[in-house]
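Q: What changes when NBP is included in the input?
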Amino acid sequence: KLAQIGVTGLAVMGGNLARNLARHGHTVAVHNRTAARTRALIGEFGHEGTFLPAETPKDFVASLERPRRIVVMVKAGGPTDAVIDEFSPLLEPGDVIIDGGNAHFEDTRRREERLRSRGIHFVGTGISGGEEGALHGPSIMPGGSAESYRSLGPLLEDIAAKAPDGTPCCTHIGPDGAGHFVKMVHNGIEYADMQLIAEAYHLLRHIAGYEPARIAEVFDIWNTGRLDSYLIEITAEVLAHTDPDTGAPFVDVVQDRAEQKGTGRWTVQSALDLGVPVSGIAEAVFARALSGHVELRAAAASLPGPRRTPLDPRDAARFAEQVEQALYASKVVSYTQGFHQMQAAGQAYGWDLDLGAIAAIWRGGCIIRAAFLDRIRAAYAANPAAPGLLADPEFAREVGEAQSAWRTVVADAARDGVPTPGFSAALAYYDALRAERLPASLTQAQRDYFGAHTYRRTDREGAFHTRWGGDRTEQRTD
Ligand code: NBP
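A: The predicted holo structure follows.
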């Protein structure tokens, strides 16, 4: 009997994906560079389904039905190229290589183009949900050709997470690097979500004066409303946890230095290339970077700040409600920005992305899963060409209702010296978008002054330059 699909790279992610496929009744060929890992997987989990273990790439390929479907789950970068180089000579036109690692979308575009010329489908696939997701149902974002999805889609939809309405959290995203691009933006949005939650915690701690256990209760309540999400849920659990060694709140014994593996940075780098303002994601990446600059922080530790006056309990409770509104409005902004980036990338790379379908497959399995995403799905279903989420009447209404509390929170934070780069950047974005006139007119006039970069007038067509160094007469330049 031949296998319907194969997995090579059996570390935690690959091993769990292979088990997930086998548990769904598929025959799965398994292979790993170091054969001991393959044997360990079969020894421990072989009883869960039908696995065809192979020790060599040749045996692995020979154990697959045609067209062959090979999931590569190795370390991103050089190892992915090494595996492609090793396996592709053994494959035939029509076969499919699925890269489920966290590849950069430009690498995926390059690999897809090279393999396409040989008739092999290369499907760069975003997989979110970590190791638990890989085993129990991740959110899956496959790129590559539409043809490859016809053969691969049913298998992937089978093992994907299911949204609350039962639909699989997997859809064909678009050609070449589209899947990995969308996974990258997912991670960027995840950075922003986490930063906003961290700021809400910081505000409740230092302005409302709540202890972590009390803040956990607040987050638990928020999790029953419009902020209902995996990240809010785990935040409440972390904040309620007490360190067994010291008896202190766990959050107080963890060093306040956040690390990163790079997908947030990639998102911002791509946004800069596309000219899309993703200030919420950028502030989140920078906030992690700042936290790690220990020497700078130590040198600044004695700089003066405001004196804080603790709020009385009634005011603290009202403040906590305002923080919920600020968090929600800021979250709408960061999703607005992330979806704008996907829309711009779709145009730049010719992907024709279905933004509503992308929101739909993030409703389950992935780290940013949230009730909120169903609202985004509905907004794009109602108006697929909407110029941003804030153009949706429902989101516009909610953010409009939250804006006063949002301003209070950002102002209180500034007054009390609590840093809120995420909340503040989101509010600035909101105010800039809705401004009737931006000071960009002055910026453009300055550019014309020192660089003769010309400007357009509000009252007439054409490009103009003023002779700033001379008689200041205006000339039309186009
Ligand atoms: P790792 O990223 O730790 O990679 C280990 C695997 O790569 C092993 O199977 C190893 O084989 C294989 N490998 C390496 Br390293 N170099 C190789 C080479 N030159 N040729 C062949 N195989 C090679 O595994 P992981 O943590 O399971 O992650 C797999 C992928 O999934 C990564 O791209 C990662 O970024 C991504 N990931 C995603 C999530 C998520 O939530 N979506 C979470 C974690 C990871 P060996 O056993 O012979 O050393």
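Observations recorded in class: Residues 313-349 form the longest helix (37 residues).
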